[in-house]
Q: What sequence folds into this?
């Protein structure tokens, strides 16, 4: 009896100090796997302190060409929620889940988003048929992303449903504010100057939302190879339309865009972040920071003389 009393006192002391509750909370965190870094950030925002997030294709990694390892299969198998983009962005993710024998909740973050259809371009091999998977480049689409993530987390962890919904709603306000700021920023730039060259076609949703013409030597998939004829056409267009905004992306091979800008007589601007966040010390360590960085750089490039 005395031993039992002492045990209860010890437990009470641990609870009062917060040590016991911290250990229990850590053990009860919902394990979630995100296919790539942008989704990982969104899951962390929505999940807050109730989730433990693991990202497969991490910062600066090209999720188009990511090759999962056996350790990744084990990580997915241990998750209660697996979050993917969908729209054929990461076809390896479905195969990975199947090979791992994953039985948990799968969240397709882009579900409900109106996909953008791409016109076929000569000399390009679109790895995603003609559907553009980069829907997160429009902040209003990300409102749908976080709502889908909140619903998926709530299925796996009903006790956190209210918290997930509240986090998603608060983040949606930030996304809408970002969108309003971006729209005002680009509306102030003459439409004739809203033309940009990027290393691959990843900014279609952003371009459509803010009235920007985006041109790229590569297709939507970073492993596609542009034809010499297409590159020559771009050079002529850069010169003819006096395009000054030329950018390379953080997970792309810079040689092509640098050669293009050299031949066209324009300089390459700061790196943009399209399919992956930067590392923690970089300018795009979260989705909101990534978008702010990209929007600022794009606007600055358009207004160069």
A:
């Amino acid at each position: 009896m005395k031993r039992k009393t002492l045990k209860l006192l010890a437990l009470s002391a641990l609870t009062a100090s917060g040590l016991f509750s911290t250990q229990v909370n850590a053990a009860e965190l919902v394990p979630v796997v995100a296919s790539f870094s942008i989704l990982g950030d969104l899951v962390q925002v929505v999940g807050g302190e109730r989730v433990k997030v693991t990202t497969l294709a991490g910062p600066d990694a090209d999720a188009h060409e990511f090759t999962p390892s056996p350790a990744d299969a084990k990580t997915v198998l241990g998750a209660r929620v697996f979050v993917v983009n969908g729209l054929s962005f990461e076809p390896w993710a479905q195969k990975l889940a199947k090979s791992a024998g994953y039985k948990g909740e799968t969240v397709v973050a882009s579900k409900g988003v109106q996909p953008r259809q791409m016109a076929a371009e000569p000399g390009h091999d679109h790895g995603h048929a003609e559907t553009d998977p980069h829907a997160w480049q429009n902040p209003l689409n990300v409102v749908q992303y976080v709502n889908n993530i909140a619903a998926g987390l709530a299925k796996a962890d009903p006790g956190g449903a209210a918290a997930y919904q509240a986090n998603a709603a608060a983040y949606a306000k930030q996304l809408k504010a970002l969108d309003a700021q971006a729209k005002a920023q680009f509306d102030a730039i003459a439409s004739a100057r809203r033309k940009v060259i990027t290393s691959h076609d990843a900014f279609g949703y952003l371009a459509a939302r803010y009235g920007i013409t985006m041109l790229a030597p590569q297709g939507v998939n970073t492993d596609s190879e542009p034809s010499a004829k297409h590159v020559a056409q771009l050079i002529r267009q850069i010169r003819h339309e006096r395009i000054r905004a030329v950018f390379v992306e953080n997970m792309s091979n810079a040689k092509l865009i640098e050669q293009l800008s050299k031949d066209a007589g324009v300089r390459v601007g700061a790196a943009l972040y399209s399919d992956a966040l930067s590392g923690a010390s970089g300018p795009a360590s979260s989705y909101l920071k990534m978008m702010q960085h990209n929007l600022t750089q794009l606007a600055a490039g358009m207004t160069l003389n």
